[in-house]
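ok so i was messing around last nite and threw this chain in just to see what happens. nothing serious, just curious
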Amino acid sequence: MALFPVDLDSTPDTIAALLAVDAAVRAAVGVEPCPPSAAALHWAGDDGEWMALLRPGEGRALVVGRHPEFSLTEDGGSAGETGSDLVGDAPGWWRRGVEYAGSHGDHPGFLYGWDGAGWWRLDQPADDGFDPELFPVTRSALRDIIDRLADDTLLDAPAADAVDRLITAGSGLRTSDLAAVLHAPDGWPEVDLDAGVRAAREFGATVPA
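result:
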């Protein structure tokens, strides 16, 4: 099957920065983020959806994941395995995405490759479940995720301009950036701003290979 370009403005570096901010907010409000590793930057949502950013070297990147409701690609897979073939005639390094999912006991529903200039995907007859507004790969999606995290942890509704500044700061965010977004008038629940900064730095320092 042929490869098709993907209309996604975010570069791998952009996605990595968004994941760092997401991890910072989760750590600050007491929701443990998925720890980064040498293999990938991993993210998991509240409804069983997940995605990971892998960097196979030479300016390449992969985004792999699955949505339990919207991924209709027969649980993904690669040639010779059960499920849809998400690799096809793509470069061999794309199989790293399928292998990563398997190492976590899951099957990928979607797989996208970055060749240094743009994102590509294999032509699929079924919906692969990747919606840029449901995963932290765009600023608007991350805004919604931060709003939900604040609401779920009984914090004030974050001011939009403060959220924008936080997202712009990326992995270099400071305690003041988090404090402007995560607060409650009576000081409860408590927010661990230092834990948030540490999480952002950890994501920012991890460069999957």
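not much to say yet. The first helix runs from residue 12 to 29.
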